Write the structure tokens for this entry.
Amino acid sequence: MQTWLEPKYFAWLEQGLVVTLMLSVGAGLCATLLGFVLAIARTAQHAAIARAASLYVFAFRNSPLLVQLLFWYFGAAALLPPDWMTWLNTPHAVAWGPIALRWPSFELFAGWLGLTCYTTAFIGEEFRAGMRGVSHAQEQAAAALGMGRYTALRYVILPQALRIATPPLAGQYMNLVKNSSLTMAIGVAELSYMSRQVDTETFKTFQAFGIATVFYVLTIAAIEVALVVWQRSGNRALQRGRA
Amino acid sequence: MSGFDWLSTLRYLLLGPFPAGPLGGVALTLALSATSAVLAALIGLAGGVALAMTRGIAHLALTAVVAFFRAIPVLMLIFWTFFLMPVLLHVDVPGLATVVCALALIGGAYLSHSVHAGIASIGRGQRDAALSLGLTGWQALREVILPQAVRVMMPSFVNQWVSLVKDTSLAYIVGVPEFTFLANQLNNRLMVYPAQIFLFVGVVYLLLCGSLQWLANALLRKDASAYGSKR
Amino acid sequence: MKNKIWGAVLPALLTGLLAVASSAAHADRLDDIKRAGVLRVAAFDSNPPFGFVDPKDNQIIGLDVDYARAVAQSLGVKLEVQPTNPANRIAFLKSGKVDLVFANFTITDERRKEVDFSTPYFASGTQFIAKKGTLKSPDQLNNLRVGADKGTTNEQQVRAKYPNATIVAYDDTPFAFAALRTGNVQAITQDGPKLVALLARVPDKENYEIPSFTISNDYGGVGVPKGETRLLDAVNATLRHLEADGEAAQIYDRWFGPKSAAPLPRLFKIGDPQKSS
């Protein structure tokens, strides 16, 4: 019926996969750090901070990612002063020895920003759920031992909270990889964009979408496998009395 | 834009070209999400029950199918159902149906997972007690396990529905005239108000999802308190 | 619960089988259109003056829509317009969601393998629009970021002729223009007449210009599903008839004539010989 894709188009899809992975890792790292901060802000004793954090979570979790991306790309770009826009659009290069880092294109930047803000809200909630999952007795025991709030957080609550939160966190990372497909709407040359591109040029719809789907499923499966490995190692460490 | 223009533009965003054309805008968004939610719930219940009741190869195959639909991005599945389903089935499938299909399948996969977990969370004791009273496996499921499991799973269902409302915005990519599509069309026409337009779109979705969640929580609380008082 | 699902799937499968069986019979698309009383057409919704939304009544109007309406009238059916962007045109046609494509659809041999084309009814060439003073000759393109519409011949031509240019493909022209405005790309490419019309409607038009060079000669035709010869003949007959009784010239005048927003002289009439690219 139809032949395989030519190597040129397969290479396009591979490039798309690389961009997807780069985008996901970049947004994932930032979202994890910020989500952490957000979770602590949510449980802060200052009412204003806690409420601001709640508002952030409400706003970013209840609007579609697509709309957020469109806003960052078109809306924010229109609102920022033109000098900033020129700076954001010129390719800057920083060379550290053999590694040369290039400033990403604006759509990649906007895509990363949108994904980070969106995912931070969800990861923040997972961390908060993890902290709540640690029994209150732990907090009380830490207080009884004379630990301040932050010492208790650092040595008692958070290690346990992180262990509880890790499986849902892996789920959020998987969602992040899937959500990165939406950045195609603002022109980021990631995997879905490339599969559409190959389809419009070669009309081999089945092959183009098929290969892209396989790439996505493999990536998600890899995260799943990493989670299982982590869980097994956690249990074994517990059994050896080191946890 | 004069005052009159604001009103007609707002009406266009809320209803689309209806009645001079097909339904669109926010009304279509709500219709799409409601239909997908109902279908996803049905698929989810069926899938979850199947996961709980089957063993061996069937269970493995079902787990693989559910895992596949949870691993594929919604956008890719919409591409599949939109571009390829009509070609494969040789049936003219309207654009709406393909989007509903994709959303229902993915929502159904997630809900199957939740339903299965919910059923498993009802202790084995309940099932054993039901069986020892002479109920068949299916009767035990229908009369004893599911009512309790559904109560546990309701938050999952509500979360999934909220997700569906947000995911309907993806229909924009395949030309379905729902709210995001029309707002984008408006932005293309006006050209110089992108921030305001997309901010407005975000706020409307916030209101939709927020009120949906609030409504669901209010109903659940009433239901929970009624259940509590009956004991 | 499972019975309910099977209860819905089985009839759907049967319907599918019946549809396959019936399509093997001799009823073709033209008969289907006449029986349904509706001609479904894909047209642009954000590309004046070919297809765009009229702010007064939120209906889609334009040059392509006028041609579509003429075809619908000659078939004696109503017209239904499905809004589309360049990326979705062929998909809509091939999946049967529309019967015809009236969307500034350039005729190419590659596309001929997937769809049939009517006799051309519009001629244009690939041009560019850039901020004033940035683009003077086509060779500069190799160093620029160029915005294009996904699924258009403009995109493919620039990629073929200027391999060192960075091409960013967007779903539709207004997207690409927004990218031009924010400086994300330095130039965007589309058919000349479309760019002229776009520039005329832009609020800050004095900042942009369309350099006079073109890099191709293209002809736009109506997209018809492959193999639907009776439908194709009907469309061709209508187009030739429109030219013969002057209505084609009137339609052109309405959108590109001296009183329109972006006047362009009419250099191509339906039935004229085509220049090679």
